[in-house]
Amino acid sequence: MTNMQGRLEFFDGLWGRLNASLNILILRNYEELPHSLGNDIDILISQSDIKRAIEICEEFSINSDFKIHHIEQPNHVLSSILFVSKSNNNLSKPLKIDFFTQMTKGWIIYADTRYILENKTDFKSYKVPNLNHEAYLLLMKELFMYKRVRERYFSKFNNKYKNIDLDEFDKISSNYISKKTILKIKPFLKTIDLLSLMPTPKLNSFFRPLRFFSWLYYSMRYRFSNLCKSDEKK
What we know:
The protein is of the alpha+beta class. It contains nine helices and nine strands. The protein has two domains: 1-128 and 209-234, Beta Polymerase, domain 2, CATH 3.30.460; 130-201, no CATH class. Helices cover 44% and strands 18% of the residues. It is globular. The two termini are 37 Å apart.
């Protein structure tokens, strides 16, 4: 068995365990599954289920060909688990699974996790966001990062997302992103290359001191940890 086949079989087995016990979905880049697996898998999960998800990963890896190398929490909404092969083959490719409990830019939430999970859909043996939500999540990620949608995603909006229900944008964003932002976005979904703006969060989403300090704490802790690791390698 090749390492690629081993990674695929391991992930499929782990996915089966997680999906049977928890309300989860694969956020993106799922189109080539189960034939191809990227360097990491992004999974959306409720905050209340994250502890159990990590336990399932630990339990499943005991009798599998992959083990947990480390678990880290880069920020307040992300827990990352890195799996490596138990064999002594140094060419074995690791697998990282990122568990997201919220979709955020910094401490600002831009989508309703509960609503996304409640309306997930099937892709082969996997659970993924429905097309309306998938389009919205990609759009928000691009706009928050670049204030535009990069050219690599034009074909998705022109083909895969061309018949999405725009009313769903209102529902998924209602508690977090201003109505003005959504109204500005809608006319450009057919001409996504012309869209350019920075989403505006609602005040009750932006002014959240506890969420801000939680984000700041985990971000600083993660950066300090990486600095320590860099110093150890010198």
